[in-house]
Amino acid sequence: MDINAILAQIDTEISNVNSPESLEHFRLKYLGRKGLLTQLTSTISGIAKEERPVFGQQVNSLKNKLLSLIEEKQKAISVSSKQQKLEPWDIGMPGIAQELGRLHPLTQVTDEICSIFKRMGFSVVEGPEIETEYNNFTGLNIPLEHPSREAFDTFYLKDYPKMLLRSHTSPVQIRVMQSRKPPLAVVVPGRVYRPDAVDASHSFMFHQVEGFMVDEGIKFSDLKGILEVFAKTIFGKNIKMRFRPHFFPFTEPSAEVDISCIICKGKGCSVCGRKGWLEILGSGMIHPNVFKHVNIDFKKYTGFAFGMGVERIAMLKYGINDIRLFYENDLRFLKQF
Ligand code: PHE
What we know:
The chain is of the alpha+beta class.
């Protein structure tokens, strides 16, 4: 066995040792009971007498070299393992920033709408998304033959033909008026469902905020005043409003409310279809037939009601041109609010 070759070999081998396990493996290979050094020593009888002292010296220095290499490596390994243990507590390391979540833009706009009405004395009530046909239609004076009753415009529950996913928040008018006495001033945020094909302005599910007020002597001018405060608070005090005659079965008279286009300020642009006006909600004076259904004396009490789409308000407020952006959970969109 060539001792010089062994010396070269141990140098490269020790440089690859980096754990207590591999160091022990190294030690046993050379200094163990059946290790290389023992084998070398046992060959001494086969060596010429005069060569033995030199050979003995070489074996000795090999042994010393091995011992000192092992000792050095042991120190190095124990230092690096101490460093590893200390690492999680290195207070000099930069911290991991926790990103704060935020409310979905639709939740923010819903909250903003409700808080404007709360400041005017309205309370917030919620109702179920699965409704009875009665609350969604009949109680609201929507006749049997009305097209919106048909399955085409409403999701009916398969096994419960008189139950459906509410197509508007107006059924909560019925629920509240059945269980509370006037005076009433209530806003109702919530999800509604319609089997519309999804495109840039339609979704099978969207959000509405309903509002209504019932008391003695409530007039159309009260509706106008309240909605004017609302529209100017949410869109800015320079916008104009107009009430355009419309039809809803549950209000009489009924009106749709437009605001002057917030993009072109009424001059006419692509957002308002060159009309200068944007529709924001439906409204009217509660129909006497609705009061009859909930046993409120329609000779004594009057009231108004309105309903708006939250997506529409949010799209106008922020200049969003595709309703689908609200539902895709794309952080690039959501982080802007
Ligand atoms: N429920 C109506 C809709 O979804 C909106 C509305 C509510 C109109 C209350 C008048 C009064 O279109």
